[in-house]
Every structure is written in C-alpha cells, then in structure tokens.
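Technical annex, item 7. During the second reporting period the consortium partners agreed on a shared format for inverse folding records so that results from different sites could be compared directly. Each record opens with the tokenized structure and is followed by the designed sequence. A conforming record, contributed by the partner at site C, is shown below for reference.
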C-alpha cells in the first residue's frame, strides 16, 4: 500500500493559533478513521513514536496525524506545559474528523506527555473521538509527576526541562542554546546544587519555579489533571505502563478511576521502565516475552482501535488486565486491578529481621544520621534520569553496595520455603521520631536471591516537614552542627512503596530498606545534618504490608 504524506498542515485552534501537523494516510479515495498523536518532542521523528509502528497503522487502514503541540517546533502560540492540551487536543480532533479524507471517527494515542494530552482532550468530549490509548501516562502533573510523597522529583523534572523542553523545540539559538547545552552537560553538578540553574530556568522556563512553589493537591494543578476528569472520559481506554515506569501509580489510578465510571478499560503492565521496553536491563533479563516488540504493542493498539473506532473487532476481547509477573517472568491475565483474591500479608520489623504474625512485644529503635552533603545515591527504581534509555540508572538494580552505607537500615526476612506471589500496591508503615528540621522517610522493597543479589522491586518516599520552623532556621546557620534531634513523639508514617506483580521464589528472602534520602531522584531534605529514630515493636509496630495473592 502506498502512503501519502502531507507535511506542515496548519490546524486552527479556537484562539486563532495555528498548530503544525504531518498527515500520513493510505492512498485511497475512501474516507478512513484517523489516529492522532500530539507531541512536544517534534513531529518529524518516528510517526508512531517510540513504541508504535506508525506506517503499520496506516497500512492497516488508518490516517495518522502527528502534531507539534502549541509553541513547540513548527507550531504557533506559546508553550505552557499542560494547560492548553485539553482544548487544543479537542480542537484538533474536531478539525480532523471534518476533513474529506476522514470518515468522521478518531482515536488518540501517545506516550508520556503525549498520553496525558490524550486523556485531557478525551475529557473535553470532542465529537468523533471513539477511543484513546495512553501509554505510560500519569494521573496528574503534581503527585506522581512533579512530586512523590511530598518530595520534589528533582532527577526527572530538572533533566526533562533542560534536555527535552529547552535543548530542542523551544526555538533557542546562540548563547541561550549554548547555555542550556552546558547545563545538560553539568547535570550532575546541578543535581548537587539545583540553585545554580535558577537564573537560567527563570529566564527560559519560568514554569519550573511555579512547579516548585505549588505543592501537590494545590488548585494550581487541578486545571490539567486527568484524575479530576474521570466522569467526563466516556470512550474506551487502553492503558499501558511498566512496573519501573516513573508514572506507574498514575497509570493504575487512571485505570481504576475510568473503570469505575463504567467505561470499557484495559490495562497492560510489563517489566519496563519509562524508556527501557525490551525486557532487558543491564543486570536483569526477563526473557523474550517481555519485549514490547515481541508482545506487539502496535497490534494491541490496532486491536483496540479496530474494536472501538472502526467497530470491526474479531475474536474474543482481550482480558481486562494483563500483567507480567516478575520472578515467574510470565504474562498473566486478571479480571481487574486491584487484582481480586489478594490478602494483606504483614511483616513486622523485628531487630534487623522481618517476621510475619503479631508485632514483637519488645520495642527497639535505630538511629539514622542524615547528611545533605552525602545523601543516599539513587540506585535504580522507577526513575527517569540521564541514562534512562540504557537502563543505567533505573529498574531492578542490585542494592548490595548501597546497603553497606551506615545510613541505610536493612530488615531481611527468613528464607522462603515456598513461592510467594505479591500483586498490588505495597506499603511501609513505620514509626519515626523525626529531627526538628524535618525528614524524608524512604523505603525499598527488595528480593534477595540465594547468591546474595539484592534486586530492587519498588520504592517510595514520604516527606515530613519541619516540626518547628524557627528551630530549623537556626540550625541552617550551622549545617554541620549535627546536634541531637529535638525531643518529640514518634509519628506513624505510611510510605507508598509502589505497585508490583512479583513472585518471590523459594530460597529467596524479602528485604526492606529504610533511609532518609534518595538523591538525585528526589531533592535532598532537610539541607542540614539531621537525626531520625526508627522505632519497632511494642507500641510502635512498624511493618511492611504486601498484597499476597492467595493460591498464586
């Protein structure tokens, strides 16, 4: 089949701005449905994006419209991340379905920011929109995107703004472009001293400071949050994400929230990070079945759009939830998420062990000394840092080296005699006496192999603000003082560690790590030496909570 390509079509928005798009369509006199991908990363790349074979969509009978979002690359207007995607996306759909080459029906798809744009546009209810396929989307741009557990996602946000939003597509030239390129090259230094980038960001990306100044849940974020619009999304949704994707919590929330509205919704979760989708990380291979291409993500899109846009699906509908269970390294189908048939499996901190059953009667505690000049280094997980395309800083990395640090507490369970299948959201409930300057409480869930390898499964953070602002201010005058923590009562803290679908095999052990930093993934807090006490047993039953699949 011959493909006709029209470059740089100018599509009018309601305010008169013209957004530029490339159109790929089969050479035919018949009108066809259109699939739309709206991107801030440049329409001149692969038409289907990083995961979907665009020409294959066209050969299957669809037109493919790829558009630069407002203010990016060839599109007019001013780029303000997030705020215009709902209206602009709806206007683009309305324009496309009215064209003579279109049969009046459309679908939206894309990865990451593109996926968020699709969800926001769907909530506008544009006529002709019949289905969407958001891939590695979040549920909002605050919690789960800019922040997690109250901590700023410095590693992702700073690099994303510099590398993806400023280095190309922003129209920068000359000294300004050189300044951005230099900042990208110095990213490790900027992670250690983020204020050094403040002037550049204030001039070229003023939205960055706004993001820093508005906490999660602030009304500032609600005007562009899919989670606020679930009742308005009434077209079938195919959600795809990965266990190590930085936005996985949002993708799972989208599935649940839209499904609760009675909308046909499916979910696929693979052993992928945001950019590593082949099933192979530097320290872990999940097998050929784990590869996005072997799974055939393009075919998943085609099946979804054929059923709901063209209404010509054949064969049985796919299972609502398809999960790759790591450890077993196989795909499993479930009726929905959260997966039915799970029960809470509790492991209490007991000395440096983890024990099932009741909390130990004897109380105990451990002291963590937090040094902002030497934070616990990010070692894998659901990150999106430099090196994300090679898996050098994300995914199931071995934790043994970081576990040697004095400021990382490790609690390890007994060797398993039978496999243990855990599917769902995991959490740490821990009693902490935090320093008056504030604290970050981080947790990691780790699978310890018989050879000692400590494979990271998921991790999270919870920020505790200063108990007394005056005391904190006084201590900032002497960052190295290391005074004893201010006397106060232990508080119960819940850290959302993340979702997993994992089989702990017989002979393996479950390990929990607790620390007070994870940098540069999260910004360091507090910026003074601080001391935190982690309590266990007695009146302070700190515990790890896992959703165990009964009979799994």
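Designed sequence (site C submission):
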């Amino acid at each position: 089949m011959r493909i006709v390509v029209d470059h740089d079509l100018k599509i009018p928005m309601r305010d008169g701005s013209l957004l530029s798009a490339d159109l790929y369509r089969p050479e035919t006199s018949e009108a066809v449905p259109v699939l739309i991908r709206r991107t801030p990363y440049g329409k001149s790349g692969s038409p289907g994006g990083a995961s979907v074979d665009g020409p294959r969509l066209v050969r299957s009978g669809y037109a493919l419209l790829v558009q630069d979002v407002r203010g990016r690359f060839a599109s007019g207007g001013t780029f303000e991340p997030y705020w215009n995607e709902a209206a602009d996306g709806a206007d683009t759909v309305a324009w496309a379905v009215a064209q003579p080459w279109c049969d009046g029906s459309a679908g939206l798809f894309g990865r990451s920011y593109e996926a968020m744009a699709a969800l926001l546009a769907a909530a506008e209810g544009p006529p002709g929109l019949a289905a969407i396929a958001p891939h590695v989307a979040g549920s909002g741009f605050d919690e789960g995107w800019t922040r997690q557990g109250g901590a700023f996602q410095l590693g992702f946000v700073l690099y994303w703004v510099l590398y993806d939003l400023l280095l190309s597509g922003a129209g920068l030239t000359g000294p300004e472009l050189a300044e951005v390129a230099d900042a990208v090259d110095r990213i490790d230094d900027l992670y250690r001293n983020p204020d050094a980038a403040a002037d550049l960001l204030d001039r070229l990306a003023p939205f960055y400071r706004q993001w820093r100044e508005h906490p999660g849940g602030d009304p500032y974020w609600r005007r562009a949050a899919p989670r606020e619009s679930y009742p308005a999304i009434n077209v079938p949704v195919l959600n795809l994400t990965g266990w190590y994707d930085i936005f996985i919590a949002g993708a799972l929330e989208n599935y649940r929230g839209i499904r609760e509205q009675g909308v046909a919704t499916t979910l696929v979760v693979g052993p992928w990070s945001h950019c590593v989708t082949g099933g192979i990380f530097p320290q872990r291979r999940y097998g050929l079945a784990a590869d996005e291409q072997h799974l055939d993500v393009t075919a998943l899109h085609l099946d979804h759009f054929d059923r709901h846009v063209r209404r010509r699906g054949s064969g049985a509908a796919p299972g609502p939830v398809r999960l790759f269970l790591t450890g077993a390294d196989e795909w499993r189908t479930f009726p929905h998420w959260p997966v039915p048939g799970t029960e809470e499996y509790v492991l209490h901190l007991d000395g440096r062990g983890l024990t099932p059953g009741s909390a130990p009667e004897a109380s105990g505690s451990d002291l963590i000394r937090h040094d902002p000049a030497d934070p616990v280094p990010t070692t894998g997980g659901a990150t999106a840092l430099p090196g994300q395309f090679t898996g050098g800083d994300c995914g199931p990395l071995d934790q043994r080296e970081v576990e040697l640090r004095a400021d990382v507490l490790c609690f390890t369970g007994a060797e398993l005699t039978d496999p243990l299948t855990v599917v769902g959201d995991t959490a740490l409930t821990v009693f902490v006496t935090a320093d008056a300057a504030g604290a970050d409480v981080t947790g990691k869930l780790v699978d310890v192999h018989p050879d000692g390898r400590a494979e990271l499964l998921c991790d999270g953070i919870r920020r505790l603000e200063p108990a007394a602002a005056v005391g904190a201010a006084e201590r900032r005058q002497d960052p190295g003082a290391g005074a004893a923590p201010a006397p106060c009562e232990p508080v119960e803290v819940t850290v959302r560690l993340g979702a997993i679908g994992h089989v702990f095999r017989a002979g393996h052990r479950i390990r929990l790590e607790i620390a007070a930093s994870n940098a540069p993934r999260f910004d360091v807090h507090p910026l003074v030496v601080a001391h935190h006490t982690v309590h266990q047993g007695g009146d302070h039953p700190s515990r790890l909570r896992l959703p165990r699949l009964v009979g799994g």
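Confidence is low (pLDDT under 50) at residues 469-486. The radius of gyration is 24 Å. All partners now use this format for quarterly exchanges.
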